[in-house]
């Protein structure tokens, strides 16, 4: 007889929580290392934790029969991801346009760091468009 604890969805959720805890330990270690002037040690712990977490996630997702999430969680993830992209678009696009206008009118010179942010922002939405197109035509 199977108990609720042995249900495959519960097992996947437990593994997912453990992996997220590994990521959290890595992040906390990195910040603790910076606070204690041991940045390199914190960075090493962070790198090991993140690489271990990514490896575990990839294994569980592609090489294991364990299901990390159910349909409800997948829909929630899709809605949250869509909302994040839309917020970034609605907030970021007017900011970038405003920066271009101010730069061209001579009121503000866009520094190199901000140009890097603009390039990263543009790359994010170009990548999103490519992935959206691939998913749409493969659906």
TrEMBL record:
Protein name: DUF2178 domain-containing protein
Keywords in alphabetical order: Membrane, Transmembrane, Transmembrane helix
Transmembrane annotation, as ranges: 18-36, 42-62, 83-102, 114-135
């Amino acid at each position: 007889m199977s108990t609720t604890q042995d249900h495959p969805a519960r097992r996947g959720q437990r593994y997912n929580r453990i992996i997220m805890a590994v990521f959290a330990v890595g992040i906390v270690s990195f910040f603790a290392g910076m606070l204690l002037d041991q940045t390199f040690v914190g960075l090493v712990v962070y790198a090991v934790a993140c690489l271990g977490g990514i490896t575990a996630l990839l294994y569980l997702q592609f090489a294991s029969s364990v299901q990390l999430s159910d349909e409800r969680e997948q829909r929630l993830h899709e809605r949250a991801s869509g909302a994040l992209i839309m917020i970034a678009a609605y907030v970021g696009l007017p900011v970038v346009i405003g920066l271009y206008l101010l730069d061209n009118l001579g009121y503000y010179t866009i520094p190199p760091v901000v140009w890097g942010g603009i390039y990263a922002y543009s790359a994010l939405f170009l990548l999103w468009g490519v992935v959206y197109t691939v998913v749409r035509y493969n659906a």
